Amino acid sequence: KSLKRFSRGMQKQAAFWLGICIRPHIMLLDEPVDGLDPVMRRKVWSILLQDVAEKEMTVFVSSHNLRELEDVCDHVGIMHEGRIVLERSLSELQNNIVKLQVAFEGKLPEEIDKLNILSKQSSGRIWILIVRGNREDILNHVHTLNPLLVDALPLSLEEIFIYELGGMDYAVKNIVL
Known about the structure:
alpha+beta, 6 helices, 36% helix, four-stranded antiparallel beta sheet
């Protein structure tokens, strides 16, 4: 049966298996699990991770599914308009932006603005702050302000993407309905 007659998911699987069979040192994958069911997605990622570990293979993955990449990547590069605008280890990215949940007796102290705050949102006396900088330094500064509550929350790769690149032109343009 011709590959052209296969479903999109089956074509992706066939391309993946053919690519992995030649045991490359470097593999380039564009949306490798797009169109696959959840069981096959997990199987593809599992085989890739196993091959990376066993054969010292390097894999470059292009994907819009940042949540899925977060589970399998140790290094991230983000492109915008054909240029790499951000490239770091995943752990470095996660340690460079901190999401804090804080509460104070009164209003938010003005000294909080000494931090490099990317976003501030409040719900009553609880504030969610997204802050760029060293996690330990940020927490030390916040603790000097005598908060009632301070909690560092995990940031997903998708949230990091939004806060790192939020200033870039991602507006939807020229759509005709």
